């Protein structure tokens, strides 16, 4: 299959969640999300209730993908930050490592400067965890996937109605 | 690229509907959306022009249920078909786990089908993938129209690898779920092999 799979384990998930909780708090933001470059939600913190996080993840990834495409056109390696300003809410999107997208949604209770500062501070922490995750996933390349033991019947059952 | 999350016990897979402009990719997703129970689907997003042509992608998240305690989620995407949207198509192929190639069965779209299929192979290679290694199925759509090429002929042109293929009328739903099931199944079987 193409490319390594992304695998998330309990321990790293807890670490990552704690970090973005802290970011959300320290930046005084509304919500923070971590999204895989392919558009899959990894973790979130803050006032997530009113937001369709699946859609948000997919659109963010599309946005970053388009921005990276633009960067390549211009001979830039990658634009690492995208910022959109709304009337009420603002959205700050940045790349962590090469693999993951950090989304911070905030309003006038805080400032772009503070958000940017805090994002920069925790990005390395996050990048370290994702690096070790990638290594773990590779070294456990032949490790069990939850699907190793599925049968054709298990798959057929998904479609039974 | 599937995403296995042991923490939330979820597995996410990405399926892309590919094919020439107006072959019925968006219509496939719309039908799936319409026929899926509310609790099993998320919002369908269409980034389209004012005339409803796909501009960037359509997106539909589906939950198919549990396998061995893991929630299986499929993210369905379509690409814009027109030739000049090639850059967007490449972006959407990133991280793909399975492909549905939708062909337009009408005689006058034969060249467009072949061109799109070649474009798919080319774009996959550019992303470091290979159609030989990715699960895919083929759908011959618009079987209800009068000027269609017969299926054996289409098969000869597009399905030399003999992957699962289906006749469809996406606008009435015929063949739509058969196609989806076939690709979902192939993706899961591939996962079972452990890449
Ligand atoms: N007659 C007929 N029309 C279809 C069928 N599937 C799609 N269409 C129509 O073809 C047009 C283009 O479909 P669309 O899904 O937007 O194509 P896309 O460019 O591949 O996304 C629309 O007017 C659809 O209603 C089909 O099976 N039969
Ligand atoms: Mg479309």
Estimated share of beta-strand residues of chain A: 15-25%
**Architecture of chain A, CATH level 2?**
2-Layer Sandwich
The domain tally of chain B reads 1
SSE order of chain B, one letter for each helix or strand? EEHEEEHEHEHEH
Number of helices of chain A: 4
Number of strands of chain A: 6
Helix content of chain B: 25-40%
Give the low-confidence spans of chain A: none
Using the coordinates above, name the CATH class of chain B. Alpha Beta
Give helix % range of chain A.
Answer: 40-55%
Question: Which structural class best describes the helix and strand composition of chain A?
Answer: alpha+beta
Going by CATH, the architecture of chain B would be: 3-Layer(aba) Sandwich
Describe the structure.
The complex is a heterodimer of chains A (161) and B (195). By secondary structure, chain A is of the alpha+beta class. Chain A has a single domain (10-159), classed as Dynein light chain 2a, cytoplasmic (Beta-Lactamase, 2-Layer Sandwich), CATH 3.30.450. Chain A has four helices and six strands, in the order βαββαβββαα. Chain A has helices at residues 10-26, 53-73, 112-139, 152-158, and strands at residues 6-8, 31-36, 41-46, 81-85, 90-96, 100-106. Chain A is globular, with a radius of gyration of 18 Å. The model of chain A has no long low-confidence stretch (mean pLDDT 87). Chain B has a single domain, classed as Rossmann fold (3-Layer(aba) Sandwich), CATH 3.40.50. Chain B has five helices and eight strands. In chain B, strands 1, 2, 3, 4, 5, 6, 7 and 8 form an eight-stranded mixed beta sheet that branches. Chain B starts with a strand and ends with a helix. The model of chain B has no long low-confidence stretch (mean pLDDT 92). At the A-B interface, strand 1, helix 1, helix 2 and helix 4 of A face strand 1, strand 2, strand 4, strand 5 and helix 2 of B. Strand 1 of chain A pairs parallel with strand 1 (3-5) of chain B. Bound molecules: guanosine-5'-diphosphate and magnesium ion. Guanosine-5'-diphosphate (GDP) binds next to helix 1 of chain B. Residues 19, 21-27, 54, 78, 81, 141-142, 144-145, 169-171 of chain B line the site of guanosine-5'-diphosphate (GDP).
